Amino acid sequence: MTRLREGYTTGSCAAAAAKAAALQLLTGTRPPKVRIATPVGRSLLLPVSHLGEGICAVIKDGGDDPDVTTGMMIVVELKLAAEPGPIQFFGGEGVGKVTLPGLKIPPGEPAINPIPRQMIKREVRQIIASRGAHVRISIPGGRERAKGTFNPRLGIVGGLSILGTTGFVRPMSNEAIKESIALEMAVKKEQGQRALALVFGASGERSLTAAFRLPPATMVQMSNYVGFALEKATKLGFNSVLMGGHPGKLVKLAAGIFQTHSQVADARMETLCAFAALMGAPPGVLKEIYGAKTTEGAMEIIAANKLTAIWHHLAEAAANRCQIRAGGELEVAVAFIDNGGRILGQSSNTEGVAAEVKGDV
Q1: Which member of 32, 181, 236, 344 lies 3.0 to 4.6 Å from 336 by CB, making a disulfide possible if both were Cys?
Q2: Which helix (H) or strand (E) segment is 229 a member of?
Q3: Where does 151-304 show beta strands of DSSP type E?
Q4: CA separation for the pair 129, 193 (Å, rounded)
Q5: What are the DSSP calls for 45-68, one per residue?
């Protein structure tokens, strides 16, 4: 197997650009590359572009990770004070602003995380000693690119974030996705939510909006990480969770599958067949369901054979499995919803949990 190539974070880019800007202002040199230290003890030698007086940039390279910021320019404009003083951070074009509590940076501050701030301060202090400085970071095009990230859901408006805890991007985005899910849940808990709606993606949000009139602010997209999301909801102290969406992924929960990516596990037809058999479906119908190419196809067979009560049984089983996975401390309700927003079946506690999610109780 070919080893995937590491990249470097936006925090590393900003630190290198800031160091180059400091060298330019104090020594008059314009190095084509600068070396920075990272929090894990490894150094990075990064190419730098000099855009103007005290303005330098580094192109982000995420390696083989599917990183939304790869290829973007991280620009730092450094202004020095004549006297000793702090290093202050400002967000320029394309860098988001934090608007909600619960993140690592307080509301009102630019979305430049603590570790990148530390890296920048360390590199700049080596050059400017105790002098005060203003560090303004920009990401041209960041405002538009941020629309496809978790930032709007986290209350980070107007652009992307300057991130990184190690300085490096490891070529797999699973941990980054989990961290974003956890951050979004923490923000909602900080805002006072006691209950939460968990969906797989945007279509799940639309389904829950249509079926239960839930505001989007009450929902978190968990992708395929159902088990992780349930565990995090328990640790954060939520009272209850409503999980809803299309049977294509939701049916897997009734079989105790909590990582729902098709490459990890796919027992949709087997699960449908088992529950249909428990309802007394004849062998011919079970063969039809098992042979269906898609969940939608199986749904048509189920409807044609008057087995629609299966969705209620599946919802109860899925809710029970999820509550067990969460350690029994979290009430979980499950609703199967078709693409038109119509509820196919739901666990018996769904209406009560949905009301709690909306804040009606």
Answers
A1: 344
A2: helix 226-236
A3: 156-157, 168-169, 195-199, 219-221, 240-245
A4: 45
A5: EEE-EEEETTEEEEE---TTS--T
d(CA 275, CA 278): 5
pLDDT in tens, the chain (361 residues): 356 788 999 999 999 999 999 999 999 999 999 999 999 999 999 999 999 999 999 999 999 877 889 999 999 999 999 999 999 999 999 999 999 887 889 999 999 999 999 999 999 999 999 999 999 999 999 999 999 888 887 889 999 999 998 999 876 557 778 888 999 999 999 999 999 999 998 889 989 999 999 998 999 999 899 999 999 999 999 999 999 999 999 999 999 999 998 778 889 999 999 999 999 999 999 999 999 888 989 999 999 999 999 999 999 999 999 999 999 889 999 999 998 889 999 999 999 999 999 987 6
pTM of the complete model: 0.73
Q: Which among 31, 37, 32 is positioned nearest to 15, based on CA atoms? A: 37
CA–CA–CA angle 174, 159, 122 (5° rounding): 75
Structure tokens at 232: 């995090």
Which token pair is 84? 């000793």
Distance CA 17, CA 214 (A): 44
Q: How many CA atoms lie within 13 A of 65 on its CB side?
A: 22
Give Cα 257 to chain centroid, integer Å. 21
Bridge partners, residue 132, by sequence: none
Beta pairing, strands 219-221 & 195-199: parallel
Burial class (CB in 10 A: 0-12, 13-18, 19+), 41: exposed
DSSP letter (8 states) at residue 359: T
Rounded to whole angstroms, how far apart are CA atoms 244 and 342? 11
